[in-house]
């Protein structure tokens, strides 16, 4: 199941700073924590979690700061040995690729799929096969046929089932259960990228498959705290977590950052902050949804996302997506990415993200795209859409 790289790393052993502190270790060149007190560092700026400066400025365990792992385990109701802390979800996917993929192996996912994951798996040397999907998830018949007809080793299946990147779909739990059962019969691990799972715009949270029995869940603080923290985590079976730790040869995720995230998790106001985020991004989603009703550059068959950061829209017929993307950049420095990068069957789609821009910038950006579209097809015209309609303030 595991890659040649992981087999090579298995003899190294994961770095365990926690046990190192309990020994007279003459084998490792770590700085003397006594010297940390002399740093011109305002200790008042560090969150108070009970962890001393000597540990916050030192290396930490390969699996992550123990106190943070414990807090994450409690939040997700799993055991400590099920948690691996990483430098963001991207490093989590990179480590999983290192653990599971040998060059030439096959990775399965949907068309479209998350561009960042596709790049990570490509760099690992995988052959990526993208399967058809609908709003409930991957086409089960295609998945079953691919698993039985493919001659090479299928290393993993990757998906983002909750507010799917880039389509915004929320896959049904019944479809995901069927996917997991099918993959299990073929011995293929399932990676669920759940970075948007805490940002639903409705009261009821989507159901997700729990980690374990071949299911690997990836989470991140980027969307609920800050992307600059670069802190994510993997929840999986202990054997897989140990394999990730052996491949993580960087001295551990920064204890300073880990301590900050730990303080957030322990703060009762953090979940209220996440509630505020949902309302903040729901307002932006509603604005973009209202504006898109009047746009002629996209077909009106798009999904209204119930969470996440973006819409996935199909460019209206008569204009090449690449030409529209270039024209929008030329007219107003509006940047779009062709859906072709997300999958070969998605070339007529673009992802429209509403999370980062201000309401005024969202309005202006859509106006520029509309102008670009009309300039490429000057005769295409809807009487009720001379311009992108301005919603009521």
From TrEMBL:
Residues 54-369 form the Aminotransferase class I/classII large domain. Gene3D superfamilies: Aspartate Aminotransferase, domain 1, Type I PLP-dependent aspartate aminotransferase-like (Major domain). PANTHER family: AMINOTRANSFERASE, LD15494P. GO terms for molecular function: 2-aminoadipate transaminase activity; DNA binding; pyridoxal phosphate binding. It comes from Pseudomonas asplenii. Keywords: Aminotransferase, DNA-binding, Transferase. InterPro entries: Aminotransferase_I/II_large, PyrdxlP-dep_Trfase, PyrdxlP-dep_Trfase_major, PyrdxlP-dep_Trfase_small. This is DNA-binding transcriptional regulator, MocR family, contains an aminotransferase domain. Coiled coil: none annotated.
């Amino acid at each position: 199941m595991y890659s040649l790289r992981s087999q090579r790393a298995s003899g190294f052993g994961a770095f365990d700073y926690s046990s190192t502190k309990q020994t007279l270790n003459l084998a490792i060149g770590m700085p003397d924590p006594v010297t940390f007190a002399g740093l011109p560092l305002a200790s008042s700026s560090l969150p108070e979690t009970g962890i001393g400066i000597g540990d916050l400025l030192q290396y930490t365990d390969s699996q992550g700061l123990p106190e943070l792992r414990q807090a994450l385990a409690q939040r997700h109701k799993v055991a400590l040995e099920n948690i691996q802390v990483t430098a963001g979800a991207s490093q989590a996917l990179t480590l999983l690729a290192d653990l599971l993929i040998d060059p030439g192996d096959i990775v399965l996912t949907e068309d479209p799929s998350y561009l960042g994951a596709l790049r990570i798996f490509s760099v690992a040397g995988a052959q990526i096969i993208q399967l058809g999907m609908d709003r409930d998830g991957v086409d089960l018949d295609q998945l079953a046929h691919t698993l039985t007809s493919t001659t090479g080793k299928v290393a993993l299946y990757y998906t983002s089932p909750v507010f799917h990147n880039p389509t915004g779909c929320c896959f049904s739990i019944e479809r995901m259960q069927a996917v997991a059962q099918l993959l299990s019969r073929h011995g293929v691990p399932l990676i669920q990228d759940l970075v948007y799972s805490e940002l639903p715009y409705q009261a009821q949270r989507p159901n997700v498959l729990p980690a374990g029995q071949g299911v690997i869940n990836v989470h991140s603080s980027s969307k609920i705290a800050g992307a600059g923290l670069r802190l994510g985590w993997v929840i999986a079976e202990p054997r897989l977590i140990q394999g990730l730790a052996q491949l993580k040869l960087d001295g551990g995720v920064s204890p300073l950052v880990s301590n900050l995230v730990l303080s957030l998790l322990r703060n009762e106001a953090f979940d209220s902050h996440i509630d505020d985020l949902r309302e903040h991004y729901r307002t932006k989603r509603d604005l973009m949804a209202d504006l898109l009703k009047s746009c002629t550059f996209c077909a009106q068959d798009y999904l209204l996302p119930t969470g996440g950061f973006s819409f996935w829209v199909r460019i209206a017929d008569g204009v090449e997506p690449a030409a529209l993307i270039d024209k929008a950049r030329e007219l107003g420095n509006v940047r779009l990415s062709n859906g072709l990068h997300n999958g070969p069957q998605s070339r007529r789609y673009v992802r429209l993200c509403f999370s980062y821009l201000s309401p005024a910038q969202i309005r202006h950006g859509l106006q520029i795209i509309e102008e670009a579209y009309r300039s490429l097809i000057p005769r295409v015209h809807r009487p009720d859409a001379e311009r992108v309609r301005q919603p009521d303030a």
